[in-house]
Structures are given as structure tokens and as C-alpha cells.
Specification:
The protein is an alpha/beta fold. Helices cover 58% and strands 10% of the residues. It has 14 helices and 5 strands. The protein has a 5-stranded mixed β-sheet with strand order 1-2-3-5-4. The longest helix has 27 residues, at 274-300. It is globular, with a radius of gyration of 19 Å. It starts with a strand and ends with a helix.
Length: 301
């Protein structure tokens, strides 16, 4: 891994969080300045908030990000997916301080507006989910019940909770950004986020005909639907977002495709309490997606 340089960036005003930037690899200061400028503008628009400090890690290459995240996951004992190569940015608060991680190699593949959209999305996470509280969830009762009834593997249940919590948090961030007028950049980023990949199709093909794996795979797509849901109500962009969602699910069988297209209505029932939202959303997803799949397999055996 490349050497790291740390640049403490001073506050511009009392309402701005202190941004401590760590650079991994050969990264131009002008590129960092653009990222920080985008972040500061977003923090101003999302005020008032309680973010006092945020760590910004900027990596030159994908390989460095992947190595870093693999090491971090082991060190802090977090069970999470690897840094998805489809995305250039992520947020966590594993160490008690909001942290935004950006891969420059991946970011530069996107249009400028989508780049800003991704950065704004992570800033939104730091505002809403900047505490370790939002990165460790107990298994909701609805999932515990179905896990016992169908004898689901513990790791599968843990992965379901993890994926459901990501979907809920992404919905909450998009709802916040939409409320504060971030539309065009989020639509641009949505086009990137919702584009189906070969790995999506492969994951589904591997999961087919194995009920628990199918359920987990379908839950993994909720992240993208949650992200897009708040923008469905927009007069100008709503149709485009709906089309993006349909495209992202186009490789699924009709029954699952139709079922997932109904999930925006579930997201729209959520309130402002993230922990409560995860429990509520889990109950509804177990009821509408997970249980029917498991019951169908049980009846055919």
C-alpha cells in the first residue's frame, strides 16, 4: 500500500466540521481541494447538524482501497461486504468519528455531476449516521422468528440485517438530500448506481433455486431502490428514476421483479428514527419477500 500523508484542514467557520484528510498514493492537492469544497458546500446546505469532525480518506487506486478495507474489517471486527468496485465512495463511523472514503481511480470514470452526487451522498451519511450506533444492529424480532422456523444459517441472517440496514440508511440519506434540493446530481449518481452489472446477473444465477440465497440476493438490491425512492416523486425526474430502477432489476424473474417494484411504498412508510426504521423495514421485507420464498421451497420438499 502507498504511504499516507495527513493534512488537517482548518475550519472555515464555526458551522463547518473540521475535515482531516489522509491521502493514500499520488494525489494532486487540487483534486483534494475540489472534494473538500464539495463537502463544505453540502455541510452548509444541510445545516444545522451535529458533525464537528469528519475524516476524509482519499485513495489513488482501487487495489489500495480494497486492501485497506479488508484490514480495517478484521481490525474492528465488522462483518461487512468488501468495498464494492461499482462505487467510488463509502462512509463509516467504526472508530466513533464519521469517515468518508473515496477512490480517485473509480471516481474519475464518472461524469463530474455524478461525482458530486456521490460525495454529497456520503456527507449525508455523516450527518445522519455518524456514530458507531448505526453500524451494529441486533437481529430484529421478525428475522429472528423466521430464522428459527426455517433453520437459517446465522451468517445468512447477519448478512440480511446488514443489507437491510444499508438499504434503510441509503433511503434516509436520499430523503435528506432531496429535501435540501439535491436533485440533478443525485439523478446523475443514480444512473451510475442503478446500472445492472455482470456481477449482479451472476450473483442471481448462482442463487437461483436456493431459497435462502435467493432471498438474500433480492435483499441486496434494496439498497439501490432505497437510494432512488425519494426521487420518484419528482415531476421531471420521477419517470427517469423509475426506468433506472426497472433496468436495475431487468434480469430477475417477473414475480420478483414486480415484487421489488412495490418496495418504494415500504420505504415511504419509514420515519426519522433509523433503529426503529430497520426493525419496521425488516418486518415488512420478511413478510413480503423472505417468508414467501422460504415457504414455497418448504412446500416443494
Amino acid at each position: 500500500m502507498d504511504g499516507m500523508k495527513t493534512l488537517p484542514l482548518k475550519d472555515e467557520s464555526h458551522s463547518q466540521p473540521k475535515i482531516v484528510t489522509s491521502l493514500f498514493g499520488r494525489i494532486h492537492s487540487e483534486d483534494v481541494d475540489k472534494i473538500v469544497k464539495t463537502m463544505r458546500e453540502c455541510y452548509r446546505r444541510l445545516s444545522p447538524h451535529e458533525v464537528d469532525m469528519v475524516d476524509l480518506y482519499v485513495f489513488e487506486r482501487s487495489s489500495s482501497v480494497e486492501a485497506f478495507m479488508a484490514d480495517e474489517s478484521k481490525r474492528v471486527g465488522v462483518v461487512s461486504s468488501p468495498f464494492d468496485e461499482q462505487f467510488f465512495s463509502m462512509h463509516d463511523a467504526w472508530h466513533g468519528i464519521p469517515r468518508i472514503i473515496i477512490c480517485q481511480e473509480r471516481m474519475k470514470r464518472l461524469p463530474k455531476l455524478a461525482q458530486k452526487g456521490g460525495i454529497h451522498h456520503e456527507v449525508g451519511h455523516s450527518v445522519l449516521h455518524g456514530s458507531p450506533l448505526y453500524y451494529s444492529f441486533t437481529i430484529p424480532p421478525a428475522l429472528l422468528d423466521i430464522a428459527q422456523r426455517f433453520k437459517l444459517h446465522k451468517q445468512l441472517v447477519t448478512d440480511m440485517v446488514y443489507l437491510i440496514s444499508i438499504a434503510v440508511k441509503d433511503y434516509e440519506v436520499s430523503r435528506l438530500l432531496h429535501k435540501h434540493g439535491y436533485i440533478k446530481d443525485q439523478i446523475s449518481f443514480a444512473k451510475h448506481m442503478l446500472a445492472p452489472t455482470e456481477s449482479d446477473r451472476t450473483a442471481w444465477e448462482i442463487s437461483r433455486a436456493k431459497a435462502p440465497a435467493e432471498a438474500l440476493c433480492l435483499i441486496s438490491y434494496l439498497k439501490f431502490i432505497g437510494y432512488a425512492t425519494p426521487f420518484l416523486t419528482n415531476e421531471n425526474s420521477g419517470k427517469r428514476i423509475k426506468w433506472y430502477i426497472k433496468e436495475s432489476l431487468s434480469f430477475l424473474p417477473e414475480k420478483y421483479f414486480t415484487n421489488l417494484l412495490e418496495t418504494p411504498k415500504i420505504f415511504q412508510q419509514l420515519g426519522l428514527d433509523t433503529l426503529k426504521n430497520v426493525n419496521t423495514f425488516t418486518h415488512l421485507i420478511v413478510e413480503r419477500i423472505v417468508e414467501p420464498i422460504l415457504k414455497k421451497e418448504a412446500h416443494t420438499q
